[in-house]
């Protein structure tokens, strides 16, 4: 959430941001509502002050003039109640609109409408030239008996799945490797809750806009699409000390997305699913843009180093304004190479948020000069499974249909290679 004073003083800047994002929002409506709301606040406060004075001067019953004063008090009360009701209605509209105001993109964010307009920054690693006909990840998963999609669909419906054998072990190895790596970098490890209250989703900037892509329960809880949300709620309504910053958290959680509007996309394999697991990086830092920029590059570097350790070619792109989530200032997508598709596909997203979330969540810190400021927040994927299996299996396959396990994962799994099972053992 942006500060209303900032919006009021910089309407042209916000108009430019809305236009650059190709985002639909009625800024003029918000400014008019804000003006009316502030006028009503003054009227309500004036009436309350007048009512208080009248109450103090009211004479007890039986004395001359008390009836007239009582009538005046009643009239004041009625006027105040009408104004309070009027304010309540306009305040509700004001709060609704404020939740829809987008963040202002960083000047380095390129113009564009969709992910097709994202701009490549760098490529790392050369895609392998295979001297045999490669298998796609869907084929490898089946032939190596690492997944059961049919029974997954029977149990969980469309996009349901069971990971099994080394498919399960490989996923757990990836989680543990990412956690170990980031703990060594000074991150505090968490297992975050997947069921989170609605107000945390609102304050983290995921509601009301993205409701159709979320799973909700009957008791006003939502299933998270990322550990970013519970971890942002972790310090809700707290005041930290500047010397505590940065807060560096790495959190594991099951994640859930409806994938609304994705019917017909990636129906085979494990790239696009309703249920998946993620290890997420979260940073809370001082409210300085350059500090956010520094940590953004650092978080991105950590994810790149994880992909390098997994021996996966990838590229980094900067998301254009039209592909930038409405609460973010800047975002990089890291995209791993998919040999069967001859293209890079998103495996990580690394984002600067500034105080957009912390202002809503009231996450503040007391700075060295004694002032209280809203912290800045950042987030980035460390690893997401089973999505990363697509790139990992395809890039490390060998001609006989086996898959070499990256060296950094072997200690977790206890073997170097995943070999095909005989058909009698495949279920």
TrEMBL record:
The record marks 381 as: Important for serine binding. Its EC number is 6.1.1.11. One of its GO terms (molecular function) is serine-tRNA ligase activity. It is found in: Cytoplasm. ATP binds at residues 257-259, 346-349. Homodimer. The tRNA molecule binds across the dimer. HAMAP family: Ser_tRNA_synth_type1. Consists of two distinct domains, a catalytic core and a N-terminal extension that is involved in tRNA binding. Catalyzes the attachment of serine to tRNA(Ser). Is also able to aminoacylate tRNA(Sec) with serine, to form the misacylated tRNA L-seryl-tRNA(Sec), which will be further converted into selenocysteinyl-tRNA(Sec). This is Serine--tRNA ligase. It comes from Candidatus Giovannonibacteria bacterium RIFCSPLOWO2_12_FULL_44_15. The gene is serS.
